[in-house]
């Protein structure tokens, strides 16, 4: 199932990405259905109480026919039509901003937050009128029916109002989500407690009061038999169980839906799918605070991952991981590594003959080739020095054959540059030996680097390699230290590199392949 289908805690409410018209039709359908279901429950409750729960005095008297079969049905139909029409008018008026697909203003948000209460108020008025009207109608013909009708219709109305509120609040979750996302969500700090109290009061307290009243009046009425008393108490108990269960279920759904949304989103975070987590906040109670807090936490995790990614891009993944796992400090340690130095040939001419944008685009493709080759060899691109690149194999993460990996990467770079970046060529030098690898700089600002003779030697070899950029050059120490990769290199000359006093045995790659 698409995760978006439960953005509001229920598949009935659709997805947050759903079109405005489709969502409006869905909300209106749910609102109308909610009012119909709540009033139907109230009607069934009223009939059950009148006919069976409190049978005496009876409503089925000959002179009450016009009330039972004309006044009551007509009022029920009229009340439902009036309630539906007024409810639709209220919803359309209060949610004009949503209908027109625009962001709500502060005034719009206040009206949207009052919409559930307006709809509930309409239902309250209709049932209050019914309570007064039916009590008077039946009471005029039989005064003994006054307490019975007042209790029966009043209790049914209270149940309808409670159920209506919970269902309306459920149907308007998408609207509440838009209001909250616009920054107008006013948190009801005791919302969960209020829902629980209403559920208890309507589902338990009022029916229990009804049972007490039945017992009380039965005790003082001579015509009330034990069977009538038993039936009345039983019906009220069944009603208490039924309405209590229904309201408890509705209340628990309103409580568990936000928690379930957080739990589902948490599983995505645990599986590493942080980018997919965007929890819709639709609850205006303390549970909404939970959703907001979770989104804040995920936002912090995303920012942390973004910073981690940027850090890795700037200093290299291995250096970043090492820095994150332990407290970084200045200084370093001796490491035996292989060093690859790649330097562009004719960078001045390149810059003079092209626009700066073109030069940057070419250099980016040049660097991309080098980074890919170095990472495949488990090396670290340590520095981009203008149009030159320094790569290290064997630090900060040790590898089995740093010299062989560096020599292989050098040949791969030469091959790929010829194919992928024909606009540019470079001299490539490889050296091997002991360096000091660590953090260099000040405590406020430092970088990971390597310092030692192999770095200088690789830079000088890259200058020498510019004579034939198709063939990288390497020191004899690098080739001697390499494994099977050494067979791809041949001895070329012994020379004293610029700035050095000792001769360097220079090897060149045997063959530069025509393709990748």
UniProtKB/TrEMBL annotation:
The keyword Zinc does not apply. GO terms for biological process: cAMP biosynthetic process; intracellular signal transduction. GO terms for cellular component: plasma membrane. Pfam families: Guanylate_cyc, HAMP. Residues 472-500 are annotated as: Disordered. Belongs to the adenylyl cyclase class-3 family. This is HAMP domain-containing protein. It comes from Gordonia mangrovi.
């Amino acid at each position: 199932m698409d995760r978006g289908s439960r953005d509001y805690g229920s598949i009935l409410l659709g997805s947050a990405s759903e079109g405005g018209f489709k969502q409006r039709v869905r909300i209106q359908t749910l609102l109308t259905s909610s009012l119909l279901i709540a009033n139907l429950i109230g009607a069934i409750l009223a009939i059950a109480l009148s006919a069976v729960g409190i049978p005496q005095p009876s409503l089925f008297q000959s002179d009450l026919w016009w009330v039972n079969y004309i006044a009551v049905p007509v009022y029920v139909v009229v009340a439902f039509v009036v309630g539906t029409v007024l409810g639709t008018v209220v919803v359309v008026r209060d949610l004009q901003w949503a209908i027109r697909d625009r962001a709500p203003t502060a005034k719009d948000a206040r009206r949207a937050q009052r919409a559930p209460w307006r709809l509930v108020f309409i239902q309250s008025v209709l049932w209050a009128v019914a309570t007064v009207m039916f009590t008077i109608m039946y009471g005029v013909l039989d005064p003994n029916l006054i307490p019975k009708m007042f209790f029966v219709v009043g209790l049914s109305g209270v149940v309808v109002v409670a159920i209506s509120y919970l269902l309306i609040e459920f149907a308007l979750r998408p609207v509440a989500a838009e209001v909250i996302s616009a920054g107008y969500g006013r948190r009801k700090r005791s919302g969960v407690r209020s829902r629980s109290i209403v559920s208890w009061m309507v589902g338990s307290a009022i029916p229990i009061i009804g049972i007490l009243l039945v017992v009380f009046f039965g005790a003082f009425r001579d015509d009330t038999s034990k069977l009538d008393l038993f039936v009345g108490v039983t019906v009220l108990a069944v009603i208490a169980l039924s309405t209590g269960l229904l309201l408890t279920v509705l209340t628990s759904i309103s409580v568990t839906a936000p928690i379930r949304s957080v739990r589902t989103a948490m599983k995505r975070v645990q599986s590493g799918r942080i980018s997919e987590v965007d929890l819709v906040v639709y609850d205006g109670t303390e549970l909404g605070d939970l959703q907001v807090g979770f989104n804040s936490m995920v936002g912090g995790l995303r920012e942390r991952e973004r910073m981690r990614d940027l850090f890795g891009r700037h200093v290299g993944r291995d250096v970043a991981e090492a820095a994150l796992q332990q407290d970084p400090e200045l200084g370093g340690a001796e490491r035996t590594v292989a060093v690859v130095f790649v330097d562009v040939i004719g960078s001045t001419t390149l810059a003079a003959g092209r626009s700066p944008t073109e030069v940057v685009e070419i250099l980016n493709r040049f660097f991309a080739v080098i980074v890919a080759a170095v990472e495949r060899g488990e090396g670290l691109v340590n520095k981009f020095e203008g149009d030159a690149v320094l790569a290290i194999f064997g630090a900060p993460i040790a590898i089995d054959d740093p010299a062989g990996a560096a020599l292989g990467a050098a040949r791969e770079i030469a091959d790929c540059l010829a194919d992928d970046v024909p606009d540019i060529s470079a001299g490539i030098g490889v050296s091997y030996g002991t360096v000091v690898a660590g953090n260099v700089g000040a405590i406020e600002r430092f970088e990971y680097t390597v310092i030692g003779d192999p770095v200088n030697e690789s830079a000088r070899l890259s200058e020498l390699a510019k004579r034939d950029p198709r063939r990288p050059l390497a020191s004899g120490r690098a080739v001697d230290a390499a494994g099977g990769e050494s067979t791809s290199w041949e001895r070329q000359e012994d020379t004293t590199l610029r700035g050095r006093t000792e001769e360097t045995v220079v090897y060149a790659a045997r063959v530069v392949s025509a393709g990748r």
